C-alpha cells in the first residue's frame, strides 16, 4: 500500500504529536501499513467489532502503536475505531486499598492482574459491539485513581475495530512450581510466603484468561530481554518529569522507586517474553533502541 498525500499529512501530524523521530514514517510504511491491511482483511470477515490486542512490556510502544492503528484504519477505510488501554480499567484507589488490607499489601500498587476491573472491561467491549453511546472509563495516574464517570469519553457504537493495549495482555498463568522461588528483592522481602504472587496468578487463570480469550488478533511488541524494561520505563519517567516542569501535574518516581515499581511486574513480564511469541498472531522483535528488527507470524 502506498502512502498518499492525505495519509502522509496525517502521519506527519501524528509523528509531531507523539514526538517521534522522522524515521518513524519508514517504520509505518515497512511494518505497520501491512499490519493495518491484515486487520482490514480480518474486519471484512468479522460479524462484530474486531478486538485487536497489543501486548508488550512497559516502554515498548504499545500506546503509540494502538493509536497509530486507529488512525490508519480511519484514514484508509473510514472505519469507526477506538483504542483502549487495560490501564483505564484499574480498580479505584479505595478498592485497591481494600485488597491491600484483606489479601496482601502489595495489591495497593496498580498494575498486576488482580488490580483491574475485568468485569467493567468486558462490559465496555460488549457495549462497543452493540449500539448506542458508550461511556469509556479513564484512569488518571497522576492521582492514582479512576476519573469520575462525568469525565469519561463517550463513543458511538457499534464500532468496527477495538484496539486494546496492555503490558500483561494475553500472558497466561504460571504453574505452581514456577511460583515457588522468589524472583527479586520485592518478592523476597515483601512476599516471602508467596501469597501475593499466587493471588496474581490465580486471577490470571480464573478472571483474566476468559477476558484475553475475547481477543481476535494479537500483536506482540517483543523486547530483547527484561533488562530493557527499566531503561525504557525510565525514559517514560523522564518525559513525565519534563511535562511536570512545564506545569502539568505528574507523579514522577526516582530510581529506587522505579526499581521497586518494576519488580511488581517482573514475573509476568518475563513469562510473557517467554510464552507469548508462540501465541501471538504477529510478533515485532524490537532492538535495544526500540526500533523493529523483524516480524514473526505466530
Describe the protein in words.
- The longest helix has 21 residues, at 24-44.
- Strand 9 (282-286) and strand 10 (292-297) form a beta hairpin.
- The strands form 3 sheets. Strands 2-7-1-8-9-10 form a 6-stranded mixed beta sheet, with helices on both faces. Strands 3-6 form a two-stranded antiparallel ribbon.
- Helix 1 (5-17) runs antiparallel to helix 3 and helix 2 packs across helix 3.
- The protein has 11 helices and 10 strands.
- The mean pLDDT is 92.
- The chain has helices spanning 5-17, 24-44, 62-77, 93-102, 118-128, 176-179, 185-190, 195-212, 227-245, 255-263, 266-275, and strands spanning 50-56, 81-85, 132-136, 139-140, 145-146, 153-157, 161-166, 217-222, 282-286, 292-297.
- It has one domain (5-286): P-loop containing nucleotide triphosphate hydrolases (Rossmann fold).
- By secondary structure, it is of the alpha/beta class.
Keywords for this structure?
298 residues, alpha/beta, six-stranded mixed sheet, 11 helices, 16% strand
Q: What is the CA-atom radius of gyration, in angstroms? A: 19 Å
Form type: globular
Q: Helical region count?
A: 11
Q: How would a textbook summarize the main sheet? A: 6 strands, mixed
Overall structural domain count: 1
Helical residue percent band? 40-55%
Low-confidence stretches: none
Give the CATH class: Alpha Beta
The total beta strand count reads 10
Note the gap between the termini: 23 Å
CATH architecture descriptor: 3-Layer(aba) Sandwich
Strand content: 15-25%
Q: Structural class per helix/strand content? A: alpha/beta
Helix/strand order: HHEHEHHEEEEEHHHEHHHEE
The CATH homologous superfamily? P-loop containing nucleotide triphosphate hydrolases
Mean pLDDT, to the nearest integer, reads 92
What topology, given as strand order, has the largest sheet? 2-7-1-8-9-10
CATH topology (level 3) name: Rossmann fold
Amino acid at each position: 500500500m502506498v502512502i498518499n498525500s492525505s495519509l502522509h499529512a496525517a502521519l506527519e501530524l501524528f509523528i509531531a504529536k507523539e514526538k517521534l523521530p522522522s524515521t518513524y514514517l519508514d517504520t509505518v510504511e515497512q511494518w505497520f501499513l501491512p499490519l493495518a491491511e491484515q486487520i482490514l482483511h480480518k474486519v471484512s470477515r468479522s460479524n462484530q467489532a474486531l478486538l485487536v490486542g497489543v501486548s508488550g512490556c512497559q516502554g515498548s510502544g504499545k500506546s503509540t502503536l494502538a493509536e497509530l492503528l486507529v488512525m490508519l484504519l480511519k484514514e484508509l477505510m473510514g472505519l469507526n475505531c477506538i483504542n483502549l488501554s487495560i490501564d483505564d480499567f484499574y480498580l479505584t484507589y479505595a478498592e485497591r486499598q481494600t485488597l491491600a488490607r484483606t489479601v496482601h499489601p502489595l495489591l495497593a500498587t496498580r498494575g498486576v492482574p488482580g488490580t483491574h476491573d475485568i468485569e467493567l472491561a468486558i462490559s465496555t467491549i460488549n457495549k462497543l459491539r452493540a449500539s448506542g453511546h458508550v461511556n469509556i472509563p479513564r484512569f488518571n495516574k497522576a492521582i492514582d485513581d479512576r476519573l469520575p464517570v462525568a469525565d469519561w469519553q463517550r463513543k458511538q457504537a457499534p464500532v468496527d475495530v477495538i484496539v486494546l493495549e496492555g503490558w500483561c495482555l494475553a500472558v497466561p498463568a504460571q504453574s505452581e512450581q514456577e511460583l515457588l522461588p522468589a524472583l527479586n528483592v520485592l518478592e523476597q522481602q515483601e512476599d516471602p510466603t508467596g501469597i501475593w504472587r499466587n493471588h496474581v496468578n490465580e486471577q490470571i487463570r480464573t478472571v483474566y484468561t476468559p477476558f484475553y480469550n475475547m481477543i481476535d488478533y494479537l500483536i506482540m511488541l517483543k523486547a530483547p530481554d527484561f533488562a530493557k524494561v527499566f531503561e525504557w520505563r525510565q525514559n517514560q519517567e523522564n518525559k513525565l518529569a519534563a511535562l511536570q516542569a512545564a506545569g502539568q501535574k505528574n507523579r514522577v518516581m526516582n530510581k529506587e522507586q522505579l526499581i521497586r515499581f518494576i519488580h511488581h511486574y517482573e514475573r509476568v513480564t518475563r513469562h510473557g517474553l517467554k510464552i507469548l511469541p508462540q501465541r501471538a498472531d504477529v510478533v515485532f522483535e524490537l532492538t535495544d533502541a526500540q526500533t523493529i528488527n523483524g516480524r514473526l507470524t505466530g
